[in-house]
Amino acid sequence: MTFDEQVRKLVGTAAIVFSALYVLSDVMELAAGRLYTGQLVVTYLAEAAIPFFVLGLNQAQQPRGGWMSLTGAVLYGFAFVGFSATVLYPLVTGDRDPDVVFDAFGGIYDVHAVVAFVGGVIFGASVVRAGVFPRWTGWALIGGLLLTMALVALGAPEGVQTIGTAVRAAAFAGMGFACLSGHAFAARERTA
Asked: Contact at 8 Å (CB) between 122 and 71?
């Protein structure tokens, strides 16, 4: 197995595992009805990995992904660096009230949410356009972001908002499975 194939497998595995962990952390919080240390650790692991595997997915669809893919991946990854801080805060301070945590970050959290939305939509569009990953994964990413935005705007409970998270996670996991199957790279090499 070449180094490039090993990296593809690593990126694919990371996209699947950490996307699943991200959804699991939401389910853990919902089941407990609160934030707690074990759940926060799972959330942190998932969020801290997102910038890396999204940049890996960007690389996987280059050169076809072009500037859109890179821009979207960098913006989305940057947002999750910020989101990771919102998880470290309750781990360090011991404060487990989500409203207090979000209040502590004020507009910083909102800015990262906007950056994640814009970056995710750009990255999703690049996936659809490049055709290296299954196109449904790009549409699912965009759809999950739009769904999350709508649910937040409507003031839907956290449990309902998890649906948007699950759709985005399914999109990234689908890209990960494409990496593992070699489908993404066969498509990229046929059209390069």
From this structure: yes
**What are the contacts of 21-25 at 24+ separation with CB within 8 A?**
21/45, 21/46, 21/49, 22/46, 22/47, 22/50, 22/165, 22/169, 23/162, 23/165, 23/166, 23/169
Q: Is 90 helix (H, G, I), strand (E, B) or coil?
A: helix
- Can you state the angle between helices 37-60 and 66-93, rounded to 10 degrees? 170
Task: Tell me the HSE value of 14 on the side-chain side, using a 13 A CA sphere.
Answer: 19
- The answer to whether 100 touches 35, Cβ cutoff 8 Å, is no
pTM of the model: 0.91
pLDDT band at 18 (very low <50, low <70, confident <90, very high): very high
Residues in the chain: 192
- Highest mean pLDDT pick, 79-88, 91-100, 166-175: 166-175
Share of the chain above pLDDT 90, in %: 71
Compute the C-alpha angle 57/78/68, nearest 5°: 50
Which residues of the chain form beta strands (DSSP E)? none
- Is the four-CA dihedral 10, 13, 48, 187 of positive or negative sign? positive
Mean pLDDT of 114-135: 97
To the nearest 10°, report the CA torsion of 41, 96, 160, 49.
-20
Rg (CA), the chain: 17
